[in-house]
Design a protein that fits this description.
Blueprint (H helix, E strand, L loop, with lengths): L6 E19 L2 E15 L4 E6 L9 H16 L7 H11 L4 H19 L3 H4 L7 E3 L1 E4 L4 H14 L3 E5 L5 H15 L4 E5 L9 H8 L7 E2 L7 H10 L4 E3 L6 H9 L5 E4 L1 H4 L2 H13 L3 E4 L6 H13 L11 H5 L11 E2 L2 E3 L12 H6 L8
Parallel strand pairs: 5-6, 6-7, 7-8, 8-9, 9-10, 10-11
Antiparallel strand pairs: 1-2, 2-3, 4-13, 12-13
The chain binds magnesium ion (MG).
């Protein structure tokens, strides 16, 4: 049974939205949001929106994402029924290897359309609305820690209680100093987490992490290189604080291997890594079967991809560690949505309404365009 809608046109936009500050990570600095925005338009006049937010040091490049979407996937989508999401995703996975962010953008746009057609929100299409909101984590990643302290104080006043300190990009002493300072100011009410973004050498990782454990972090994320999975498993085995795998788990295959070697206590779920919301739910199912927790991670994204992430997290059977969809509220100089991404009182609110429940402002795409839109 087909819907009465056909994909008529596909447009691909490249935007760069400047950040309010440089954010430093174990694998490099980021000064803005490089996003590829996908517009899937039906012959019935509906528009589904999708976003790919690649990071060259982590998932891929914007140029590669544009080519995957426009050159390689677009010809197979024109004239097709948008609601047959699994069929299109299976085809996309067969047509283009890798490029999980491009596939995430495609699935996002198709689910947005399917939601508009059915009157259901995306979280309902993939399982149901298990929660309406979740705690928001902000990443302390400014090389100028004084500026971070000002930002944290402002966010604390707004109700944010979760802070993820990006470590391993400067010195071990700098990391210890920042943790001591934040724990000293905010006490036990602060939920402090640590993310090395692969920044520790495996041979010395255990000793460095043990030093930081004095400040009672909730978890330590990705201390070693993405492919050093055995080292990560060893660290998770000997360190008492929960260890999270982020760069080491993209999709279901890494998740399955990760479970087999007990690589971590937590997996970071990201639609950009797994190639969509539904594949991320598959990763979460593998984790859940093994007693591994999941967490709502993101790349450098606009509010559009954050909305997809919020729908993913809303549909999970359990969520204890909340999410980090802070970019559009606290990092980007401006967002591309017609309404602000819903963050209130330190919590992310899952958008309501059919589909993703958010819409892109075309004027913002034009303002931050990096190239002429394709299509
Ligand atoms: Mg991370």
């Amino acid at each position: 049974m087909m819907s009465d809608h056909k994909i008529d046109r596909i447009r691909v936009h490249r935007v760069l939205i400047p950040g309010k500050a440089v954010h430093s990570h174990g694998i490099g600095d980021v000064a803005g949001i490089h996003a590829v925005i996908l517009e899937v338009i039906t012959d019935t006049g509906l528009t589904g929106w999708g976003e790919a937010s690649p990071w060259p040091a982590f998932t891929g490049t914007a140029e590669g994402t544009v080519a995957a979407l426009y050159t390689y996937l677009r010809p197979h989508l024109i004239g097709q029924d948008p609601v047959q999401v699994e069929r299109h995703m299976r085809d996309a996975e067969a047509l283009v290897v890798g490029h999980p962010e491009a596939k995430a953008a495609l699935e996002m746009a198709l689910l947005d359309l399917t939601g508009q057609i059915s009157g259901l929100s995306v979280c309902e299409l993939v399982g149901g609305r298990m929660r309406d909101d979740m705690g928001l984590s902000f990443s302390v990643a400014n090389p100028d820690f004084g500026k971070d302290l000002e930002d944290v104080a402002a966010m604390w006043a707004e109700g944010v209680r979760i802070f993820k300190i990006k470590t391993g990009f400067k010195s071990h002493g700098f990391d210890l100093m920042r943790l001591e300072k934040l724990r000293g100011i905010y006490g036990a009410e602060a939920d402090l987490r640590i993310d090395y973004n692969q920044g520790l050498p495996a041979y010395d990782a255990v000793r460095c992490i043990r030093d930081l454990e004095a400040f009672r972090p909730t978890f330590v994320e990705q201390p070693v290189k993405m492919h050093e999975r055995d080292a990560l498993a060893h660290i998770a085995h000997v360190i008492e604080t929960p260890i999270m795998a982020d760069e080491s788990v993209f999709g279901v295959r890494e998740a399955l291997h990760g479970v087999q070697i007990r690589m971590a206590d937590i997996f970071s779920l990201k639609v950009m890594k797994s190639g969509g919301i539904r594949r991320a739910l598959e990763v979460s199912a593998i984790a859940r079967a093994a007693g591994i927790e999941v967490y709502g991670g993101c790349m450098f994204e606009t509010g559009l991809a954050h909305a997809a992430g919020a729908h993913l997290m809303a549909a999970l059977p359990e969520l204890r560690l909340d999410c980090e969809f802070y970019m559009s509220t606290y990092y980007a100089s401006e967002d591309i949505l017609t309404e602000p991404f819903p963050v209130r009182g330190g919590r992310v609110h899952v958008p309501e309404g059919p589909g993703l429940g958010v819409a892109v402002d075309p004027a913002m795409l034009a303002k931050y365009a990096q190239a002429e839109a394709l299509g």
